[in-house]
User: Which sequence fits this backbone?
């Protein structure tokens, strides 16, 4: 998916509302509690600006971090890909502020040292990777210890099925992918890399989440030209002892069987989901993360969780399974803590056609800073349309810091922002990642 390809929507203002959140009991056996939480829905407006072009290849969430007084970003793709070709575009640029870094010419980007792909059938890194979030180890005062949360794509050719481990994919009834040629669909996974030198070199630490072969959605039902299944397009934020992962779920919520396939069941298990891992387990992550299962973070890292219900598109409103050629789901979350609003903000896209077609961007809010308490991680408001560009395909929306004294002093990144932020997104049909608007929030 990542290797493929109206005018301004009127300013959106939303009034106040009372958000009711049903919280799960903190201790098993206690009666479930329902509490009323006063939450004034933020208002916001889009301020049109001159077009700000990002000067390099972007096909993912923008991973960035401050290392001392240097802002560093890590766009691009790296690794083996039998459909699109081997890529060495995962590079970094540095600068003293966001505008300087985002304006860096492509020729000035630096290629970090990345782990090589392991031979087929052997343990190690397989397929291509994109860095989508960088977590900075708070215990390292130098700021040079970083963990990159990466999106990883494989095919039956790069990761053939291993009966002993259950990993990998069987090349039978495999669905078609994005290209106009007859090529296979990819499967996405999410992993972790570590750097101790500020991003100049990286070591692969293992997988964060994956869906295995039994959950792949195959022919004749998967005709979307998206994924065969899997988890991907992540955004991660740290809260307390945990790193919370927001990701797209594209697999079947059970064992896929062509004879008993149910599109409504597929839809029920897909959209934007949440998992978490203890920060002190990032050095050896595989098998440690837990997915939200409807009651808590109880499902295994490779098990079946439940998506955030409020972010799903109802079937009666056009929602549908990811394997459908008509789509109908939100995807590509980019989550940030807003210091002005004192709430979480999530940007997302919308798929409404084959090959990830969709011309709208959406926004949602969550008032709970402590995502680990009760149902707090699930308490996202119904997505509201932020922008529409008829005739275009919009991917990877994110809010980014501005070149202001306040944003620089606070060392804002796409994970932490203030009253104003620059909206970036990719015109996939044009192959351009750019900004045409600033988003301004009001309490």
Assistant:
């Amino acid at each position: 998916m990542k290797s493929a390809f109206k005018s301004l929507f009127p300013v959106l203002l939303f009034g106040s509302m009372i958000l009711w959140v049903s919280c799960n009991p903190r201790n098993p056996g206690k009666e479930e509690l329902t509490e009323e939480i006063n939450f004034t829905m933020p208002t916001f407006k889009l301020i049109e600006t001159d077009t700000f072009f990002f000067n390099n290849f972007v096909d993912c969430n923008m991973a960035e971090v401050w290392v001392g007084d240097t802002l560093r970003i890590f766009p691009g793709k790296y690794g083996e890909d039998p459909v699109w070709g081997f890529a060495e575009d995962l590079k970094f640029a540095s600068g003293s502020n966001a505008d300087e870094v985002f304006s860096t010419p492509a020729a000035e980007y630096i290629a970090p040292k990345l782990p090589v792909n392991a031979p087929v059938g052997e343990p190690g890194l397989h397929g291509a990777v994109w860095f989508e979030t960088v977590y900075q180890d708070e215990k390292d005062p130098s700021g040079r210890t970083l963990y990159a949360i990466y999106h990883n794509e494989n095919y039956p050719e790069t990761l053939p099925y291993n009966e002993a481990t259950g990993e990998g994919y069987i090349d039978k009834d495999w669905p078609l992918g994005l290209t106009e040629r007859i090529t296979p669909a990819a499967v996405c996974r999410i992993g972790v890399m570590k750097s101790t030198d500020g991003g100049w070199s990286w070591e692969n630490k293992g997988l964060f989440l994956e869906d295995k072969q039994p959950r792949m959605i195959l022919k004749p039902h998967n005709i979307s030209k998206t994924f065969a299944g899997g988890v991907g397009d992540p955004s991660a934020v740290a809260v307390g002892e945990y790193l919370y992962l927001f990701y797209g779920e594209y697999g079947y919520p059970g064992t896929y069987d062509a004879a008993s396939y149910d599109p409504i069941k597929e839809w029920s298990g897909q959209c934007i989901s949440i998992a978490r891992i203890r920060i002190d387990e990032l050095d050896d992550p595989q098998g440690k993360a837990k997915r939200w299962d409807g009651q808590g973070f109880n499902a295994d890292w490779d098990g079946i969780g439940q998506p955030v219900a409020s972010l799903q598109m109802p079937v009666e409103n056009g929602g549908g399974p990811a394997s459908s050629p008509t789509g109908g789901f939100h995807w590509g979350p980019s989550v940030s803590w807003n210091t002005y609003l004192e709430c979480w903000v999530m940007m997302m896209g919308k798929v409404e056609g084959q090959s990830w077609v969709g011309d709208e961007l959406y926004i949602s809010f969550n008032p709970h800073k402590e995502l680990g308490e009760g149902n707090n991680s699930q308490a996202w408001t119904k997505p509201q349309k932020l922008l529409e560009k008829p005739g275009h395909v919009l991917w990877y929306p994110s809010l980014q810091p501005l070149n202001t004294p306040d944003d620089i002093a606070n060392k804002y990144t796409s994970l932490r922002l203030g009253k104003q932020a620059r909206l970036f997104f990719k015109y996939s049909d044009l192959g351009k990642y750019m900004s045409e608007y600033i988003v301004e929030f009001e309490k």
Summary: The mean pLDDT is 92.
